[in-house]
Amino acid sequence: MKKIIAATLALTLLGMAPAAAHQPVDLLNSDTTPSAGPLLVDGTVSFAVRASFTKAGQKKAFRAALKEGDQLDVQYLIIDKKPENKLKNSKLPLLVITSPSGKKTTMKFTERTEFLETYSRTMYLYLSRISEVAEPGIYSFMITARTKSAITLGVGAREVPGEVLRGQ
């Protein structure tokens, strides 16, 4: 009986690890500028930043801090179901990433690769990915809607718990 309880406890704890590591961050309607939005204290930690829009022109934003020698990893994903998977690329939200030095990068859609997120059993489509050596400092992420839609941005790659600050 003790072995069954121990095995159940071990499996439960193992099953909980992904929830703590790939942390969800929902952008609020009040997160309209990078400084108003949340700050991912360590941009190398894996976060799933979710943004939902009800109309064209809406903006949502956040920031991520990176240090010298860190890697900037960003993935642009949509859930693989209507209406998002039927939207033309020109109708999906525009993501502009601004580096600490002011360099602006607009994510371009280069793929539609399926990805099963195993924890939630949700099928996504990768539309774009960036992986490059980061500048030290705070990166700003500005998302602008072109129609009613929702996206998820994967930021960071390290599967460990991370910290998110609001109102700073």
List the helices and strands and how they pair.
Blueprint: H1 2-21, E1 23-26, E2 39-40, E3 47-53, E4 59-66, E5 71-79, E6 94-98, E7 104-106, E8 113-117, E9 122-133, E10 137-144, E11 149-155, E12 164-165
Parallel strand pairs: 1-3, 2-4
Antiparallel strand pairs: 2-12, 3-11, 4-10, 5-9, 5-11, 6-7, 6-10, 8-9
Describe this structure in words.
By secondary structure, the protein is mainly beta. The chain contains 1 helix and 12 strands. The chain has one helix at 2-21; strands at residues 23-26, 39-40, 47-53, 59-66, 71-79, 94-98, 104-106, 113-117, 122-133, 137-144, 149-155, 164-165. A 6-stranded mixed beta sheet has the order 1-3-11-5-9-8. A hairpin with a 5-residue loop joins strand 6 (94-98) and strand 7. The protein is globular. The termini are far apart. Residues 1-21 have low confidence and may be disordered.
Summary, kept brief:
The chain has one helix at residues 2-21, and strands at residues 23-26, 39-40, 47-53, 59-66, 71-79, 94-98, 104-106, 113-117, 122-133, 137-144, 149-155, 164-165. By secondary structure, the chain is mainly beta.
